[in-house]
Amino acid sequence: MLEIGGDGRTWLLSGPTSSYALSLTEDDTLLHLHWGPRIGLADAEVLADRPLPPYRGFESQLDGLEEYPVEGGPRFVRPALSVRTDGIRGTEWTFSAYEVEDDELRLRFADGGLGITLHYRMRHDVVERWVTLANEGSAVEVLRADSATWTLPLREDWRLSQVHGRWAAESQLVRTDLTYGEQVIGSRRGHTGHQHLPWVALDTEGATEERGEVYGCALAWSGTWRVCVAQLPDARVQITGGIGYDDSGLLRLEAGESYTTPVFAGLWSDGGFGGASRAWHAYQRAYVIPHAEQDRPVLYNSWEATEFDISEDQQRELARRAAAMGVELFVVDDGWFGKRTSDRAGLGDWTPNPDRFPAGLKPLAEDVRALGMQFGIWVEPEMVNADSDLYRAHPDWVQFQPGRKRTEFRNQLVLNLAREDVQEYLWEKLDNLLSGAPIDYVKWDFNRCFTDAGWPGEPYPQKLWVEHVHAFYRLLDRLRAAHPGVAFESCSGGGGRIDLGVMARTDQVWTSDNTDPLDRLAIQHGFSQIHPARVMAAWVTDSPNTQLNDRVSSLRFRFVSAMAGVLGVGGDLAKWSEEELAEAREWVELYKEIRSVVQRGDLFRLRPPAGGLSAVQYVLDDEVVVLAWLQAQHYGEPVAPLRLQGLEPTKTYECRESGEVHRGAVLMHHGMPAGLRGDFDAAVIRLRRI
Ligand code: DGJ
């Protein structure tokens, strides 16, 4: 809902539980008024009438109060907008008009020939903000154009939550007290990065998992990005964020050109961290993730089983075993194309390897379909190996600096996707691939960061950082439109490209290359702060986990860990015993029974993974699912009962495992035993409201 007051200079956006308000002063300064619980227009107008802080030398009267601080004038905060025109740096803007269309509020400003529009849209309790720059004057160099600056109310003791990590250790949740100055997170790597999800949360006055005020912001961008959380000298807190880090987001707008930033979404919740996560999840399922109402199938992926050593017959045999287990989607990972027998060759040559698939992918795909499964493949379109036909033909199609070494990671170079010829090549190859065999699913990987992001011959090569991402999005959008039945997964050496931007055009994401079921609990805990189980791919792989740590764990523990997201199996089924295959079949069957609750239900993190008992709970209508894990039991002490959340206290719930009937109030206040013992135990508990 959008309300307008103050003679058309105060705006109030409201969702089911929250409001966001802003207004223009007489001299066209755009001030932030409110972000928090629902208020009325009369409240916003009172806030709009408040005077600015008194003048003091060495202080800005605007810092910490403005909606979108531009560079220049009486400001000392990090500018959200920094442009250079005819050698002059900074912005002096005046308000032109506001428009409302389909619940979207647009505030138009101008500085000479540069039009600057701030966009606002409330979806559920999420405020989506973005900015458009339209140049009609002399060329403008855009040094920085953040999507939004968020202003928090004046409080004491803010705490910052973020998820950080690296390869195989993504999404580690940390909470630290905010202090004066700036805390900057981001990626200078060309992709979202394993190092941080582009999300922060700020809480105050000791928010807990289910209580207290939490503010969150998440950026919808899959390239370089930067989010800065600043506590200003007067203790006010602002969060500004958008594309680019240092000079990796520079753009140049000639007359007649325009640029639209990605969305930076913000959410206020007074339901603690759990309430904030549920609101983020509901928003993504309703507005971001394609076809979120459809449950994702159980997948088998052969990567950990076979790596590059693949053959058609071996894949067929794995498919037969996967189908017998109840798997619904069989995916051939890396190694099916070009001369891809190791990571040294083949990237770029997107036709089936004739030695491995003499008649192409079609026979295998058809056999997989005949087994009752969908068929999927792996690709990494943005990359090329020097040892490939593509690179031999077009060595200038990669990002490089003239006269400098071309840095390789995993023996590969990054294609310059900002080039139209590269875009067309990839479109043709991928379109042919999807047209040439019955392919239902594409795992789209990205296995190295940008290092030598040059574009010889291009007058403004810096634009490559942004245009690569736009070209990636366009290619995905075009493929989705041409092949609407094909689902896509975003992968980047595990979870290196997970953000609201890629999520709007993929069906699920690969959470991490770390498939150790214990490590995964922590990774999933961090991931769930912002993203829902509906997109979180998780595989059951072999024990011992030879990839990372040789940890031995039961099939039960591995399955229950992976059942917290979109279940997949990635072990070497050729080596699984008949007993293991039979047990796995039962777990897959159980997952199919609970998956709509897991993938579409409300998530409650009952206990974080911290060494002992941990558990998550999902609620969808009258169905409740609890997944619980015990890492280690100590001193023979019985394991604490699990106190459930989100139930109706006066209703009764029947446990489908034991047949026992429980009162909602008792389950929430006193809890129920999960029945776990020893080390690495796990359980699935299903309850139904009766
Ligand atoms: C990295 C991915 O995260 C893995 O799952 C696998 O697809 C490999 N790439 C293949 O090269």
The biggest sheet amounts to: 10 strands, antiparallel
- Helix content estimate: 10-25%
First-last Cα distance: 36 Å
List cofactors, ions and other ligands. Answer: (2R,3S,4R,5S)-2-(hydroxymethyl)piperidine-3,4,5-triol
User: Which superfamily, in CATH terms, is the homologous superfamily of the largest domain?
Assistant: Aldolase class I
DSSP strand (E) fraction? Answer: 25-35%
Regions with little confidence, pLDDT below 50 for 5+ residues: none
CATH class of the largest domain: Alpha Beta
Q: In CATH terms, what is the fold-level topology of the largest domain?
A: TIM Barrel
Q: What's the total helix number? A: 13
Shape: globular
Compute the CA-based radius of gyration: 26 Å
CATH architectural name of the largest domain: Alpha-Beta Barrel
Instruction: Give the overall pLDDT as a whole number.
Output: 97
Number of domains: 3
Catalytic activity: Hydrolysis of terminal, non-reducing alpha-D-galactose residues in alpha-D-galactosides, including galactose oligosaccharides, galactomannans and galactolipids
Active site: 445 (nucleophile), 513 (proton donor)
Enzyme class: hydrolase
Domain Glycosyl hydrolase family 36 C-terminal: 614-687
